[in-house]
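job 3f2a | input accepted
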Amino acid sequence: MTPDPRNIQSGTELWKITLGELDEKMGVKIVEQSVERVVATMPVEGNRQSFGLLHGGASLAVGEAVGSWASVIHASTLGKTAVGVDVSATHHKSAREGLVTITATPIHLGSTVTTHEVLITNEAGERLCTLRITNLLLDRKG
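job 3f2a | predicted structure (142 res):
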């Protein structure tokens, strides 16, 4: 999911996260947003697969969103926007209930490319999934 560049503020003001339709359906809530860290939460309930576990696709969707938001926040400081070019994930542990926390932190914040690590953890702080997302920074159009 690529954030809508129309939501980026002018100049070098930090872009503020706006949830998309899928984010809202998944129950995503923003906890913190800055260049250094973006944190969100999502309930497991409503995001489970047929075996009653947190859906791997839900983990990827929310992880990509949070990592992309982090990249767009950085890009906004340069008067740019960001588009995703690569995302990969490793699932470590499952969850059946509760709230997961999704945290994106930068690995590399460049002027043309960003890379973020995104961790998804359960309420006990155990790592459920690790994602890595790379975004290309582009000049904003019109």
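job 3f2a | Residues 1-10 have pLDDT under 50 and may be disordered.
job 3f2a | closed
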